[in-house]
Design goal:
mainly beta; 11 strands
Length: 126
């Protein structure tokens, strides 16, 4: 089981930036995919993006492409979600999650990931 802990959430204004961190228990040469998801009140949890732990390859949801960037620092065992040009509709609890192996065909689905963090709240005011 992979241990995950998100941090960095908060209250910001529209147009601001915020960086979330996901501290993991992954080993440097683990073959995992780390995903970011978010869940707004009354809505289903949705895919934001993911990164392969070994190669650093990324995939993004269309709604955040060009605004959000995912990066990882294997020495620090941490994955980052840099969020720029934030909008009120980005307000949600943000979660990181892991799946063993490459992204595969279910990389954008909640069921495609096995371990989850507790989430961190991001609120964007207009």
């Amino acid at each position: 089981q992979v241990q995950l802990a998100e941090s960095g959430g908060g209250l910001v204004q529209a147009g601001d930036s915020l960086r979330l961190s996901c501290r993991t228990s992954l080993r440097t040469f683990s073959t995992y995919t780390v995903g970011w998801f978010r869940q707004a009140p009354g809505k289903e949890r949705e895919f934001v993006g993911c990164i392969t732990w070994s190669e650093g390859n990324t995939l993004y949801a269309d709604s955040v492409k060009g605004r959000f960037t995912i990066a990882r620092d294997r020495a620090k065992k941490t994955v980052y979600l840099q969020m720029n040009s934030l909008k009120p509709e980005d307000t949600a609890v943000y979660y990181c999650a892991t799946r063993a192996g490459p992204p595969g065909s279910s990389y954008y689905t909640v069921n495609g990931y096995t371990d989850w963090g507790q989430g961190t709240q991001v609120t964007v005011s207009s």
